[in-house]
Structures are given as C-alpha cells and as structure tokens.
Amino acid sequence: NDSKPTLVHDSEYVIDGRVYGLPEAKVYREDYNGPAVVGEYLTAVPHLAKLDYVGNKTHDVRVDVFSQQVEVAPGVSYSAWTFGGTVPGPVLHVREGDRVVFKMKNRSDKEVVITEPVKDGAPFFSQLQANLYQNNKPVVNPMPHSMDFHSGTVAAEDKWRTISPGETIEFEWIANYPGTYMYHCGTSSVLMHTAMGQYGAVVVSPKDGYPTDDDVDHEYVLVQSEHYLEETNGQYIYNHSAALARDPSHVTFNGHVGALSDTPLRANEGDRVRLHVLNAGPSGTSSFHVIGAIFDRVWYEGDPRNEWYGMQTVLLGASNSATMDFIVPEEGVYKLVDHEFADAERGAAGALIAGPR
Amino acid sequence: NDSKPTLVHDSEYVIDGRVYGLPEAKVYREDYNGPAVVGEYLTAVPHLAKLDYVGNKTHDVRVDVFSQQVEVAPGVSYSAWTFGGTVPGPVLHVREGDRVVFKMKNRSDKEVVITEPVKDGAPFFSQLQANLYQNNKPVVNPMPHSMDFHSGTVAAEDKWRTISPGETIEFEWIANYPGTYMYHCGTSSVLMHTAMGQYGAVVVSPKDGYPTDDDVDHEYVLVQSEHYLEETNGQYIYNHSAALARDPSHVTFNGHVGALSDTPLRANEGDRVRLHVLNAGPSGTSSFHVIGAIFDRVWYEGDPRNEWYGMQTVLLGASNSATMDFIVPEEGVYKLVDHEFADAERGAAGALIAGPR
Amino acid sequence: NDSKPTLVHDSEYVIDGRVYGLPEAKVYREDYNGPAVVGEYLTAVPHLAKLDYVGNKTHDVRVDVFSQQVEVAPGVSYSAWTFGGTVPGPVLHVREGDRVVFKMKNRSDKEVVITEPVKDGAPFFSQLQANLYQNNKPVVNPMPHSMDFHSGTVAAEDKWRTISPGETIEFEWIANYPGTYMYHCGTSSVLMHTAMGQYGAVVVSPKDGYPTDDDVDHEYVLVQSEHYLEETNGQYIYNHSAALARDPSHVTFNGHVGALSDTPLRANEGDRVRLHVLNAGPSGTSSFHVIGAIFDRVWYEGDPRNEWYGMQTVLLGASNSATMDFIVPEEGVYKLVDHEFADAERGAAGALIAGPR
Ligand SMILES: [Cu+2]
Ligand SMILES: [Cu+2]
Ligand SMILES: [Cu+2]
Ligand SMILES: [Cu+2]
Ligand SMILES: [Cu+2]
Ligand SMILES: [Cu+2]
Ligand code: NA
Ligand code: NA
Ligand code: NA
Ligand code: NA
Ligand code: NA
Ligand code: NA
Ligand SMILES: [Zn+2]
Ligand SMILES: [Zn+2]
Ligand SMILES: [Zn+2]
Ligand SMILES: [Zn+2]
Ligand SMILES: [Zn+2]
Ligand SMILES: [Zn+2]
Ligand SMILES: [Zn+2]
Ligand SMILES: [Zn+2]
Ligand SMILES: [Zn+2]
C-alpha cells in the first residue's frame, strides 16, 4: 500500500509520496460529437462507482460542458450551464494516488442530447434513466468555461484555464489527498458560473480505506447547492443580485428539491449507511443532519485522519465536505436536511427509506 | 463501565454496544392535568441536574407542550409555543447508555400555569422562581406538535410523529452517544415551530466522563437561538418572511436578551468553568466566545473523542453543540458573546461574574 | 521547553503551567508624540516577525489608536478608526509563554502620520513602504476606544477597558495558549468599532512548534474582514444598518480588495507555504481556499493539537483562525479566496505567485 508513486512525465517530482509538477494543459480543436461523459467510474448522483481494481490506475475521463434546460423544482426550470448535462455534474470516483487524464470540450455552442444511454459512455447515462427530472432539453448558449478540480494540486491558471466554445482542453491531475472534493467552473464571474449549475463531486477513496469500510452496507453521494432564480415572463433566469445578497430561491440536495424525496435513498434497519456530502455553495453553509440518526463517524473533508464521533449535525462551509456513517436504527423514513431551517424550507431536504432488518 | 446494554423489548438489538429497534410509539388520550414537566433530572437553563447514580438508569420523563406569553426582550413578548412553558424548554441530563421513557401531552388547547413550584414536578420548577422573566401567562393556541430528540436514534416518522391537541404520545429512546443535543418540534413548518419557541437541550454525559471532570467547579447550559418577531398594533408576532430571510429581530442566550446579563453565571478566579453550548438556530451559526478567556478544552458536539484545545472561538452550525472548559483568570466580569457581532448586537450576549480566588 | 513560568507580580498564580492573575491595568495621561507602533516583533500584514530568541521573553509593545483616511478598494476610502494607522493593524508575533507589557494611547483627537519609517518604531513602518495603499491621510476623530487581545486571559472589564482621547492604558498579558488570535476594540457598539477598522492579529507560536516547521519556506499572515460602506455625496461612510443586516459592501484580505493581488504573496514550486489566517468578521464566516492547492496540514485556531489533513477548504467563524500549510505544486499563480463566492466577488480574493523550482 505504500508503494512509490509512478512518475510519467519529466516535469514530475515527489514530496511526501505525492506527485507534483504535471505537464502543461493542451488546448486544441477536435471533431468530437460522441458521448459527453466518458469514463468507467463516472456516475450520476447519488451513485458512486465501485473501485473494482487494486492499487492505483490511470483514468481517462471526459466531461464536456454545454447547456441544458434543467428543472430545480416542480415548474421551475432554467437554461443551465452544465458539466455533462446535469446539475450537479457526474460523480467521479478514484483512489488516492490515481492519475486522471481529463478532457473537456466546450460544446456550449451546440445542442447536446444526454437523456439516452450512450454506447461507450459512462455508467452515468444508464443511471440517469432512473432520474425523474432528466427530461432535460438541449440549449445553445455559447460561453467560455473552465474546469477546476479541488482534488487536483496544479497551477490553476494553466490547468483550470478558460476555453472558448469549440475548444477542447486536456490536462492531468493526481489524486494526492483522499476526500470528497468539489469541481466547478472557475471562469469569471465564478459566482455566476457555479450558480448557473457548473459543479459536481470527486470522491477520492483513501488508499487504506476508512476504518469502518467492511461494515458499510450502502454508500451515497449528496451535493448541496443554492439556486438563485427569478421568474420573468414565465421563464426562470439566474438572478445575480440575489446571488450576491445570498438570498437563494431554492436550496437543493442533488440539484432538485425533490431529488432525494421522489427517489429516496434506500437501506435496511441495522445497516451502516455512508454519505459523502459536499456543500457546493456557491455561498452558504450547510448544517447537515439526518432526522432520527446520529453520525457514528464523520471524516471532515473525507480524510480518515480527520475523525469525529457521535455527531448530530455536521457544519460545512462553501466547498467543504464530509464523509459520514450512521446506523439505521429502525425500519422507517429518515429525512436528510440542512438544519438551517430557512434552507430546508427552500428545498434542502431528502429522505432515506429503510426496510426491515 | 463497559457492561453490556440491557435489552427490554423483543424488537431491540445491539450494534457496537448501542441499542436500536425500540418499540413503536403509543398515541392515546389521558386525563392529565398535573405538572407539565416531570423528571428528577430536568432543570431550567442554565442549570444542569447532578447525576447522583452510578451506571445506567431508566428515566421516566414528561414534558408537555402548550402555549405561553413569553418575554424575549424588555417590552417584547409573544405567544410562544413551548415545551414545558419556557423558551428554551427544560434541560434533560442523562448518562450515555441510559433509557428514557418519554411522555408528552399536547395541551395547546388548555391554559397551563407554570410559574409556581409544583409538587411531584421537576427541579425545573423551583429554578424558574429565580428567573426574572417567568411572569409568563398561559395562552390557548390549539395546534399539532411533535418532539424530535437529536439524542435518540429511532424511526422519526414513528417516535417524532405529530400529535393533536388533547393527545399524548409515549415512546422510548436510548442515549447511545454522549454529547449535548437539541430537541425540537418537528412539525411542519419546522422553521416556524422552532422559531415559535419549541426547542431545548439534552446533555448526555459520557459514560467515562471528560478528562477534566475532576477539576470542574461550575457547569452551565447555554442555548443560543434566533427570534423573528415583528410588532403589529403593539403586539409581537412571528414573522415567517423574516425567518426565511434569516433576518432575526433578536438573538438570545437562554431565550432572553437579558437572561445571562440580569442573572449572570457565577464562578471564582481560578475556577474551571464548563459550558454546554447548543446553537438551536433555527438557521444561523454561532461563533461562541468568552471575552477575556480562552477555551482550554472543547469537545465538539460534546463527544470526549472530538477534542480541541486553546480556542478563542467555537463555530457552531444550526443544531451543533460543544462542551467547553475555560479557566477564570481573574476576579471580574466575563462577557459571553456570539462573536458574529451583528448577532451580539441583537442580544446574543451574557455574562459570568467571577468572585475572588 | 517545559521550564516553569516566571511569576513577576504578587497577584500571579499558575494553573497547568499557565499564568493568571495579572496586575490591574493603569490608565494615565502621558506627553507622547512618538512612533505609534513600537516593538521589535510588530509587522505589517502579510509579514510575520522572526522570533530570534530562544525560550520566553517579555515584550514591550505599543500600538496607539487614532484615525486615518484608509482605502479599501480603488476609489473607496473612508475615515477609519485604526490601531497603528492601518486596517488591519500591525501583526504581533510572540511565543507561547511570553509576557506582553502593552501600552496604548488614544490619539484619536490628534493627527498622527504613519507613512514614513520611524526611528525607534517597529519593522511595521518599513514594511508599510511596500504597501501601495499607504497613502493614508491623518484624520481627527476623537472617540473612546479600547483593546481586547483574544490571546490574553484576563479580566476584560479591567484590561480591555475603554479609554478617552488623550488617555493611555497599560496592562500585561501572558500568551498562555498558542494560536493565531484576533485583537480588536471592544468599545460599544463593538460591531461599529470593529467594522470601522479596529482589528488585527497576534500570532502565538507554540513553544514546541508545529510538526512541519523545518520544512516551511514562506510564512504569511492573512486577515479577512467585511466592510460596510456607503457613498454619500462622494464620500464613503460606515453604514450600521448594512452591518446589522450582514450586507457588506466589500470583503477583503488584509484590508484592501487588491492587497494580495497588487502585491501577491511569493513562493516557488515545491515550497511549503504556511498561512496564518484570521477571519476578523465582524459577522461573516470564511470558507478559505487556495485555488490549485490542498492544505496538507491545518491547525484549527493555530493549536498544533488541533490537526487536520488534506483539506480543500477551511471554514472559519467570526474571530476563528487556522494555521495551514500547503505545497506549491507548480510554477504559476495561486488565487486565495473565500469560497463563499458572494464574498469573493466583493473582494475576498488574493494571489500567491510561484516561481520555478
Ligand atoms: Cu463556466
Ligand atoms: Cu432536528
Ligand atoms: Cu410544534
Ligand atoms: Cu473579541
Ligand atoms: Cu474603538
Ligand atoms: Cu473552487
Ligand atoms: Na481531503
Ligand atoms: Na445552509
Ligand atoms: Na454526540
Ligand atoms: Na450567529
Ligand atoms: Na489557540
Ligand atoms: Na464569507
Ligand atoms: Zn501524461
Ligand atoms: Zn445506484
Ligand atoms: Zn441494506
Ligand atoms: Zn419499554
Ligand atoms: Zn443551578
Ligand atoms: Zn467557584
Ligand atoms: Zn509587570
Ligand atoms: Zn516579509
Ligand atoms: Zn520559496
């Protein structure tokens, strides 16, 4: 487990077993109209791909950027800027020490359809089929965008650089630290680009796991975020003043006020459930709580060394995360909420349904 | 100390030494007009009952729900929804592993008087006598309510279910995890029910204690909360828009802007003072600070394993808590504040007065 | 390193190796018009003085209080209340166990010039020369003020007492606990006095250091704060309603929206950079993040025992701090932000520029 990291490029070097000095990003134009999300370990929230390999691996990952009409609440949809066509974008799962070769085409100037499972695409697509809200419609909205992975340690103005519609960027990053990380568009106004829908989660599993891994029965990913929408002539559009004033119209788990209510998480009495919770903001905190449960273990930011016990509520800043386990005490319904009740009332609520033991 | 937990009902089972699978709640009607708060270990804030028993115990506890005219600031009172007649409600103290058999009658359709000490009632009543603000007047306000103990691990839609005026609910929970926990009404709108006054604290002392227990001279309970009141025709009423906008009219410690100023906490120079601080929200954070002191130890959420040292300020999310010790350095006055000064200015301030060594 | 503390005054006593019971503050009038900031270990942000002594030391420190016209953003300046003439005030660096003999004259009734290096003054003055914004102009604004060091454990109503223009206060405090601490004016309205500019940082280095001390290449101090300014007749003045409503006009690192952009922090690829970050509020939280980096180690509130690992973002309450290390992965620009993007957009952004390895 403590094998030396493999260096691939001349520029790379190691500090404390972690790899730095990755090669420069490449920006080019390619003739690509294939699946917008490619990679074996890319899923739709709340799913997390199983890491069916030992040790480390290089992941070839593509997540293209383009616009979609996306629903946030019943009757409330807007023309979102997206990674891979959904808000939040796909979940990437890798292991500490893995290398990611990432490619993203800015297809915001084209209509991209994502509602059908796609040959050569990621598990992401088949999981979308179960998503009640994926009646998304393609939208054309040409716009510069970029990709910033919090899980990567790189020169941001190189790898996270903004590309124009029609351009593709390609760069690598190493999962140097375990944890659950935000990714998002970093193009200015970053408040606007994230509020428009451009964020998602990367789960970097620790190379030696978490101490309770063997007992986990179900594992899910939750992304909390605020939406700042206003109605104008029957259409919902982004309201930058509201975003600046921290006055969200909706706060959601996994992008829709009903995402985790209409299709609740599942478990059984006596199960150990693990949640990877990312608060994507863009500005608010989350006081994450499961009604009827106490978190047996919490790993702040997902690092197994940041361990807390017996917590009723976990406070997360904007782009903070935690990995948390709880025991399902009885058959029944467990509501998940941001215990900042002004936000729960705006939609930050969901549920886990537990069957009998 | 590591004795096996005692199982009482057929449905119960044990995971990691903790008891789950408690019997279903019972809802019935009873002809009860006795004391609204019953239980030896129930006190009024800032008091905490002494646990005068070894090992574990089953607690028979009653806290009835009903309305009272309650003062929040000089000249500002409103018709509160309460547990036991005060805001916050009574403090329950138990030990990790204890069983609580809880009963609550919804008496919101009747006038209930709580200002007199009550035969067979809890220590809570005699402590209220010292509370300057307990000139509370009974109010009739028939309304469904419920009780959600964060200290319990149960099926919420069973135990925390809503009952109508005239109904009584009875259920059990086990104090599986040590810490300081919020309880509150979970009936929709939960933002409104909590903001109307329905919350309080349960302190679950760790079975092996905290490392500094032997040195603690004084121990107090603080509950911070926001109030969203507006004046209409000389009356103060709850303002739901303000609650949604996170724009509190008052932020208090222990329910009144003067609660800990007019009757300050007491200690002496050189004492180790322990505070159990719960931020009940319903929406805001607390940056809890004692002016002139540094927290020698902080146990986040009250679990002895979540230990921090030497902290000037402790950040708490909505329904987060911490147990914290500080040494009183000199004779004098120590102000307690939410160091989010916009909230301190709205009332989140109190004091501890220290006598000579 | 575990030598017994030296007691100096009869009133002093020791608990757990820490000194309490310091003598009463003295308030008097002195004929002093010398340098407003005196002390070898007082620097201008982002600098931190080197502790060029072993063991403990008594520091004679003066920071006078007076008004200055201070710029917060291009074209936005206001008549600030300051410690030492800048916002934030000077950084004091001491070691755990050190004694500080502190003197402050309230010179708010006089014009005090601080833009020139001063004979017998602190390193603070020469560092100001490199500060683009120190075209501050003296302002007369007679006002009572006080000094509250979070790093001190004392009777606040004695040492932190308010003094009038023309008065000098003198008191002592001991750096009993390591960490990065806020200091600020505690005179009512404390929301107003802090928002007007009266705050800064004390760094108390742990007596046994942090575990990575030997590997640190660069060490900087950052103070985040909100400003509540409104324009009236072409002048910017403090807006108390906005401060109460938590609606800042600007949020800054080190007092100016461009402070860390126009004169960025410096390091090289492969360096370990240490930041001491204080969120001075007065009311908001900070979700502190470095774009392109992950914090290898974080010591919450600066205590080496409060250690976290591998964090993308560190959440700080009002008057919370953290000391954090990160490895600079590549040559390039690393933006520092409050990842609460509504605040980043108001100015809470800066940069570190890394040269080649
Ligand atoms: Cu974008
Ligand atoms: Cu709750
Ligand atoms: Cu209720
Ligand atoms: Cu303070
Ligand atoms: Cu002042
Ligand atoms: Cu980011
Ligand atoms: Na991490
Ligand atoms: Na929230
Ligand atoms: Na706990
Ligand atoms: Na607060
Ligand atoms: Na500290
Ligand atoms: Na902030
Ligand atoms: Zn390569
Ligand atoms: Zn699935
Ligand atoms: Zn299961
Ligand atoms: Zn029973
Ligand atoms: Zn008492
Ligand atoms: Zn005492
Ligand atoms: Zn002395
Ligand atoms: Zn310097
Ligand atoms: Zn360097």
Report on this model:
- The structure is a homotrimer of 357-residue chains.
- Helix content of chain A is 8%, strand content 42%.
- With 357 residues, chain A is mostly beta strands.
- In chain A, a hairpin with a 2-residue loop joins strand 1 and strand 2.
- Chain A is globular.
- Chains in contact: A-B, A-C, B-C.
- The complex binds copper (II) ion (CU) (6 copies), sodium ion (NA) (6 copies) and zinc ion (9 copies).
Instruction: Let me know the number of strands of chain A.
Output: 28
User: Largest inter-chain interface?
Assistant: A-B, 38 and 53 residues
Structural class from helices and strands of chain A? mainly beta
Main sheet overview of chain A: 6 strands, mixed
Associated small molecules: copper (II) ion, sodium ion, zinc ion
Question: What is the C-level CATH assignment of the largest domain in chain A?
Answer: Mainly Beta
Brief write-up:
The structure is a homotrimer of 357-residue chains. Chain A has helices at residues 123-128, 156-159, 190-195, 240-244, 259-262, 341-344; strands at residues 13-15, 18-20, 26-28, 37-38, 42-43, 58-63, 65-73, 76-83, 91-95, 99-105, 137-139, 148-149, 168-174, 179-184, 199-205, 216-227, 229-232, 235-238, 250-253, 265-268, 272-279, 286-290, 295-300, 307-311, 313-316, 320-327, 332-338, 349-355.
